[in-house]
Amino acid sequence: MSQVNNNPFKYSDTNKRYHTYDYYLKKRFGEKCAKIPLDAGATCPNIDGRCGTGGCIYCLGGSGARLASELLTVREQYIKGKEKLSSKWNTEKCIPYLQAYTNTYTSPFVLRQILNEVSSFEGAVMIDIATRADCLDDGIIRVIDEMSRIIPITVELGLQSSNDETAKIINRGHDFDTFKEGFYRLRQGAPNVKIGIHIINGLPGETAEEMKNTARSVANLHPDLVKIHLLHVLDGTRLGQMYKAGEYTPMDRDEYIRVVCDQIELLPADIVIERVTGDGIATELLAPEWSKKKVAVINDIDKELFRRNTYQGKRQVN
């Protein structure tokens, strides 16, 4: 019997034993959607001095870096991204993704302008906003809530780790209690909005058990989506300097696969797992070398879940 037919996980129509983003989008919008990263010119309170300087130690200019779009408007970026993805995915449905830096670290007026603009883009079926939990004041949440009644919105919050000592090491700029406060404020103030949480495995000094504790903390918050990342060492970052000085050792491939599978088991089945690893910027990647073969890593995560005869939520603690 094939893995698909023998798959015990209910939120799947493939061999995947976790709730994939593709499955979620197909159920919600009827087909695959192209997610298009955009740089709307935001900055970050962890860079400009409000809560820190220099950004997180792994950051090379915001999530996904400052896109190569200094001379392009947001609309031009969207059109260019849509054209690029048209050869990969046969779909007209797109998700404008405000990815670079902290996109709610602005005034409600400016955020409303940006959201109004991207909601009008051809083919846009949902807006995705990347930000921090400490940049969600009442005015910002009100704008997001109002816009969510016009077009579906997802807000992605960077947690990385629920361990406050790790947060200090990576220079995140706020503790876990502050994160939870922002999360619940958004949940209550914008009930139609889907909330995603980012976590990173392989952060300096963290053990496998601490990474699993982060998954447990996220499970207790019960967001709508989770992104699981591998920590990439990029040249030009503080982490890159640590790596070159022998002060940081990247996570081993086999351990990463084990930990991700452990985390998947701990996350409730209805939470969408948007990704189980990520891409480093190829031209700046110092380590780990094995991360370049992303598809192979994802396949081996699938194999490990099958080998264990397990699936998302199997070890969820209520």
| Strand percent estimate | 5-15%
Give the end-to-end Cα distance, rounded to a whole number of Å: 33 Å
CATH topology: TIM Barrel
Number of strands: 9
Q: How much is the average pLDDT? A: 93
The CATH homologous superfamily is named Aldolase class I
What is the radius of gyration?
19 Å
Notes on the protein architecture:
With 318 residues, this protein is α/β, with parallel strands linked by helices. It has a single domain, classed as TIM Barrel, CATH 3.20.20. It is 36% helix and 14% strand. The chain contains ten helices and nine strands. The protein has a seven-stranded parallel beta sheet. The protein has a two-stranded antiparallel ribbon with strand order 7-9. Helix 3 links the parallel strand 2 and strand 3. Helix 9 packs across helix 10. The protein is globular, with a radius of gyration of 19 Å. 44% of the residues are buried. The model has no long low-confidence stretch (mean pLDDT 93).
SSE blueprint:
Blueprint: H1 21-29, E1 34-38, H2 74-86, E2 94-98, H3 108-119, E3 127-131, H4 138-147, E4 153-160, H5 164-169, H6 176-189, E5 194-201, H7 208-221, E6 225-230, E7 233-234, H8 238-244, H9 253-266, E8 272-275, E9 285-287, H10 294-308
Parallel strand pairs: 1-2, 2-3, 3-4, 4-5, 5-6, 6-8
Antiparallel strand pairs: 7-9
Helix pairs in contact: 3-4, 7-9, 9-10
